[in-house]
Amino acid sequence: MGCSSSLPDRSAGRAGGLNPDNGGDSDAKNLRVKGTLVLGKAALFFALSVVSLIQLPRYAALAPLYYRGAAVGVIVYDITNPDSFSKAQYWVKELQKHGSPDIVLALVGNKADLQDKREVSVQDGMDYAEKNGMFFIETSAKTADNINQLFEEIAKRLPRPSPS
């Protein structure tokens, strides 16, 4: 698998990747990426807009504007924090209620590198995902475990445009 992308450097107003002045994060809440994902012999051209809704409680009425028309919803919870799993369930319901009927939903248990601190079982995540027509995966943002697999699975599940 290969991936190419261009990340905007918002602080300098130019494309060029991550901004080292703020720890490498060009914008902690919003990210836009355009690129090509190569899976074997097939290439998927994409435009991706990532919006963190975790910071939106005070803007809850505006949240549907961010995900209306979205093709994919990735709902992430912390496997060491049961409260984050409950909040993830809220966002699943929101996306099911306000999102596109054919939205691809992924439930992601993050911090898989912290197995000794786990408080949400793998089975709980799998059961909830299956019950809600989602796919489930556990990842580690710290070690990058299963991050590529997450995006590969999303790419496989996205609807393909009809040939004209």
Automatic annotation (TrEMBL):
One Pfam family from the UniProt entry?
A: Ras
What PROSITE patterns does this protein's entry cite?
RAB, RAS
Q: Which GO terms of the molecular function aspect are on file? A: GTP binding; GTPase activity
Q: Which InterPro entries match?
A: P-loop_NTPase, Small_GTPase
Chain positions covered by the region annotation Disordered:
1-26
Query: Which key words are in the record?
Result: Nucleotide-binding
Gene Ontology biological process terms in this record: early endosome to late endosome transport
Keyword Nucleotide-binding on entry = yes
Q: Does the keyword Nucleotide-binding apply?
A: yes
Kindly give the PANTHER family that the UniProt entry links to this protein. Answer: PTHR47978
UniProt name for this protein: Small GTPase superfamily
What is the organism lineage in this UniProt record?
Eukaryota, Viridiplantae, Streptophyta, Embryophyta, Tracheophyta
